[in-house]
């Protein structure tokens, strides 16, 4: 099942997606079926935080010539960076080297802190979606830590929908810029699998409903420029598409 958030006739709705149609759900339990082309697709959840994971693909570690991490390398992105499908990524004047990073994202369904088992962690997961961990690479190198480079407004594209009950063990993940494939890998190459990430991160911090864990990017990250169209596609989830322009064009 695919679920999401939608704007229709000036109001926000939760909805269930089936092919090219969405069933909008109202607070009173009523349903309204409309074509996807008639609604604006909003970010599918409203996270209190985004927990990112660095260097989590074996082929990415090989590309960089770095040893595999013994524990997940985690960082945070703010909720203010979130945008949705077909929204604009705004390139800030502070950076001359903004990169795409296509990723699988875990969406939390219930609050979780210090789970006693992997099974408890599994029950707290709502589903999965596509994510683009947009990063100001030059600022990342300059600062030596990642917060500023990862946190600009619009640097967390998310969506288009959340897929429930998904087996993430063997999914093709790819990123395209202007139709050209620039990243292509498989979730089977993750060092720390999604369930393990949820379990380990929840030992550190409380995960709230709607929170995102971005599970790391495969090799092939690279720059974005004004006018680009960037797409993150994950097998059995869908395509997250965003447009790129400079902040001055806003």
CATH-wise, what's the superfamily of the largest domain? Fumarylacetoacetase-like, C-terminal domain
Low-confidence stretches are none
- Taken together, the total number of domains comes to 2
**CATH-derived topology of the largest domain:** Fumarylacetoacetate hydrolase, domain 2
User: What separation lies between the terminal Cα atoms?
Assistant: 35 Å
CATH class of the largest domain: Alpha Beta
Q: What Rg is obtained from the alpha carbons, in whole angstroms?
A: 17 Å
Notable features of this structure?
single chain, globular, 42% strand, Fumarylacetoacetate hydrolase, domain 2, mainly beta, 250 residues
Overview of the structural elements:
By secondary structure, the chain is mainly beta. The protein has two domains: 1-42, FAH (SH3 type barrels, Roll); 43-249, Alpha-Beta Complex (Fumarylacetoacetate hydrolase, domain 2). It has five helices and 20 strands. Strands 1, 2, 3, 4, 5, 6, 7, 8, 11, 12, 14 and 17 form a twelve-stranded mixed sheet that branches. A five-stranded mixed sheet has the order 9-20-19-15-16, with no helix packed on it. Strands 13-10-18 form a three-stranded antiparallel sheet. A hairpin with a 3-residue loop joins strand 19 and strand 20 (238-246). It is globular.
């Amino acid at each position: 099942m695919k679920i999401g958030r939608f704007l229709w006739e000036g109001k926000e709705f939760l909805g269930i997606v089936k092919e090219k149609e969405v069933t909008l759900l109202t607070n009173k339990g009523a349903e309204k079926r409309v074509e996807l082309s008639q609604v604006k697709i909003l970010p599918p959840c409203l996270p209190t935080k985004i927990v990112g994971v660095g260097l989590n693909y074996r082929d990415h570690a090989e590309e960089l010539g770095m040893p595999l991490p013994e524990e997940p390398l985690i960082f945070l992105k703010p909720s203010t960076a979130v945008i949705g499908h077909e929204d604009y990524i705004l390139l800030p004047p502070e950076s001359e080297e903004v990169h795409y990073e296509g990723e699988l994202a875990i969406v939390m369904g219930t609050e979780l802190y210090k789970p006693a088992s992997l099974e408890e962690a599994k029950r707290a997961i709502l589903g999965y979606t596509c994510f683009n961990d947009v990063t100001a690479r030059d600022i990342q190198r300059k600062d030596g830590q990642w917060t500023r480079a990862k946190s600009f407004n619009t640097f967390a594209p998310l969506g288009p929908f959340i897929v429930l009950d998904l087996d993430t063990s063997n999914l093709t993940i790819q990123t395209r810029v202007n139709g050209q494939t620039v990243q292509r890998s498989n979730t089977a190459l993750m060092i720390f699998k999604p369930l393990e990430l949820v379990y380990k991160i929840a030992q550190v911090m409380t995960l709230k409903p709607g929170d995102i864990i971005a599970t790391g990017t495969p090799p092939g990250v690279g720059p974005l420029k004004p006018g680009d169209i960037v797409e993150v596609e994950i097998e059995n989830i869908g395509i997250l598409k965003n447009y790129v322009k400079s902040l001055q064009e806003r």
